[in-house]
Amino acid sequence: SQVLRLERNRRTGVVFPLQKLARYLAPGVDTTRFGLFQPGLAALQSAEALFRSGRHHAIDYVSSAVRMDHVPPPALPEVCFIGRSNVGKSSLIRALFSLSPEVEVRVSKTPGHTKKMNFFKVGKYFTLVDMPGYGYRAPRDFVEMVEAYLQERHNLKRTFLLVDGVVGLQKTDHIAVEMLEEFGLPYVMVLTKIDRASRGLLLKNVLEIQEFVKAKTQGCFPQLFLVSSLEFSGVHLLRCFVAHVTGNLPTVKAG
């Protein structure tokens, strides 16, 4: 709520980091994909309320699973977060739930800390799933676990594919994209750790990934989401998009 009261320029930098970055592009560069999902203050505040627990709105860790016969029943709309080990996935989920500090999201400095699918229930509205990281130190049964989940979880509304904003798309990320494309699932790319990248490097990675999404993907939402779990930039917008794709903010226009 403090961020939403900031004067417009400062607020844009925190809430819409991609739009802030667009100011430094050369004239003539197409920026239509930078602002496809651009909610107003009312939508941002509604989404923030969803991520704040209360007496009649509990946000809880539900359970963990390594096989599909152990996952909770698919009663609510669901989103899942996947990405390379050490991409900052658990840190981002903790930032999303920062308004509800009682929700325990374990964050480790050791890559590959998440070995199971961890389910978090957001009231009666949706479920958020923290998936194991792929690549370095991935669980031995990662492929079987994740492929089975993606193919069988019929209440899955959107997959959030996290990419390191400093190093850009890696070989393992391309494999994850191929898997999501093969399964015909709608997904979104989220660039993490943007506070660690220089403006020039971040712009380079954004433009390269955006071009890749435009040329090589069918199921990826055309707008990238930029986040810093440390500085909190982009977190409000991502909350709003999660609320939207799970059907809890129907008035916001987006694909």
TrEMBL record:
- Output the Pfam families linked to this UniProt entry: MMR_HSR1 (PF01926)
UniProt keyword terms in alphabetical order: GTP-binding, Magnesium, Metal-binding, Nucleotide-binding
Domain EngB-type G: residue ranges:
75-248
Which Gene3D superfamilies has this protein been placed in? P-loop containing nucleotide triphosphate hydrolases
Q: Signal peptide location in the record?
A: none
Q: Which GO terms describe its cellular component?
A: mitochondrion
Single Gene Ontology MF annotation = metal ion binding
* Keyword Magnesium found: yes
InterPro entries on file: EngB_GTPase (IPR052279), G_ENGB_dom (IPR030393), GTP-bd (IPR006073), GTP-bd_ribosome_bio_YsxC (IPR019987), P-loop_NTPase (IPR027417)
Instruction: Name the cofactor(s).
Output: Mg(2+)
Cited SUPFAM superfamilies: P-loop containing nucleoside triphosphate hydrolases
Q: Which NCBIfam families match?
A: GTPase_YsxC
- Please state which protein family the record places this protein in: Belongs to the TRAFAC class TrmE-Era-EngA-EngB-Septin-like GTPase superfamily. EngB GTPase family.
Instruction: Return the protein name.
Output: GTP-binding protein 8
